[in-house]
Design goal:
The longest helix has 22 residues, at about 295-315. The protein has helices at about 30-35, 40-50, 60, 90, 110-125, 145-155, 190-200, 270-285, 295-315, 360-375, 395-405, 415-420, 435-450, 525-535, 545-550, and strands at about 70-75, 95-100, 105-110, 130, 135-140, 170, 210-215, 230-235, 240-250, 260-265, 340, 350-355, 360, 380, 385-390, 420, 460-465, 475-485, 490-500, 515-520. The chain is of the alpha+beta class. It has a domain at about 420-555: 2-Layer Sandwich (Sulfite Reductase Hemoprotein, domain 1). The chain is globular, with a radius of gyration of 23 Å. The protein contains 15 helices and 20 strands. The N and C termini lie far apart (about 70 Å). A hairpin with a 5-residue loop joins strand 8 and strand 9. The strands form four sheets. It has a five-stranded antiparallel β-sheet with strand order 1-2-5-4-13. The chain has a five-stranded antiparallel β-sheet with strand order 3-14-15-12-11. The chain has a five-stranded mixed β-sheet with strand order 6-7-8-9-10. Keywords: 4Fe-4S, Heme, Iron, Iron-sulfur, Metal-binding, Oxidoreductase, Thioether bond.
Amino acid sequence: MSTPTRTSNRPQRGQGQWALGYREPLNPNERMKKDSDGLEVRQRILDIYSKTGFEGIDPGDLRGRMRWMGLYTQRAQGIPGGKTAVLEPEELEDSYFMMRARIDGGQLTSDALRILGGISTEFGRDVADVTDRQNVQYHWIRIEDVPEIWRRLESVGLSTMEACGDVPRVMLGCPLAGILEDEVLDATDVIAATVEKYVGSPEFSNLPRKWKTSMSGCVDHCTEPEIDDVSFVGVRNEAGEAGYDLWVGGGLSTNPMFAQRIGVFVRPDQVTDVWAACTSVFRDYGYRRQRNRARIKFLMADWGPEKFRQVLQDEYLGEALPDGPPPPPAKHDQRDHVGVSRQKDGLNAVGFALRTGRISGSLLTTIANLADEYGQGRIRTTTQQKLVILDVPDERVEALVDALAEHDLQVRPSAFRRGTMACTGLEFCKLAIVETKQHAQDLYAELEKRLPDFDVPIGINVNGCPNSCARFQTADIGFKGSMVRDDTGEMVEGFQVHLGGHLGVEATFGRKFRGHKVTKAETADYCERVLRGFLERRTDGESFAHYVSRADEEWLL
């Protein structure tokens, strides 16, 4: 007698891929999105929450859908990093918001920058951050002020729409697109067309998770396409035609992976459609059941580029894309456009370093005024937390360099000032374990004193938690925030060390050594020790990342 097959009315779980019919059961994030599209929260903010205040906000909107409008609750002041994983979200959050203004392609006018600066000064306690994704972030924002902030941003063509959330985030572009003679092609128009057509569209307002895009013809690969979800990288095919190489599946956080080349050549007039097709693949086939596997990199790891290309072409484009060549390696290791660069029209772009991205609204306004005085009112943000003023005549360059230096904005910074980045950290972020912004500033200042003649580029990225907003895995020296035991046995703020991360040729993530950690107080001593060893043992022209790859472990501890 055979045993009858068990049947069940329970829905299949699978990986939560819509294209395979797996829409139930839902994790809390997927349920939140199904209950109400994130884009719908905008009207509730305008009509209800800006009038009721913080206490009147629905929890599903507060900790979920508001991200679709670039709003996160910020961390309550005074909560130590050791409590981050212990407290519930409502115990960690303040009644103020971090707000992110998206700046696609990093392109700003002086009028727009003055608006950004004024918002910070009037509504955000004069605090602002230029991020490593070309955005500007505010803190201390009250929900009552959001409608007026939106009105001002929209008056200069900016918004907070989909600056956060499971949506197409800001689209990165070279800050010198259309400016430099040696670029492969100018991606400004394809970014603008894609943003106009799809940002804020319900078609892509419910993706499995965030979706990070870059489109650039920069010879330095300044948008770091190796670690974006989808990237269009400038290249010339065998016929000499300029177009794009398509890369998919990059990302960092707790499971870092490099993007993979799909192997196709995309003409400029195809970019928006190909981008939409890639985004549709992610929407329909991306893993939704487990939040920690909901990025495209996990699907790419399982599928590989051949299957991705086949699905992209057969199911979404309806045509085959031609094979294409890989782009040449990045022309320069430093991708920040700091310094003075000659524009193809004979004027100059002047790029300068902030203090690990932290700035004030007042100073943003000053920069806007300088851009009018010395240039033509065009400013750009970079993916390295830097700014660039365009269109400066030769005879005005040094005067602008001096004017910026009066505000500690350095066009010719030290290697440490130039190469140090930091995420938001414990000061405002609910996920952070350690303070980062001020510590990173103190760290580069100390290293400038201890190693004043250090003569090679060095990236030092300070991150407050494992999520890698400051890209610690791809830095020469990456610090990942954690709680560490000091010599007395007390748990204090500290960092796990990652060494020798590198993008470009022979890209690699930083090495870890038996979970090697340092306390916050030890970071300057540690950096000095390791960098002095590098200076003593390096070969001619050797980079720090290459040195780390061959170094004995004891040299790096």
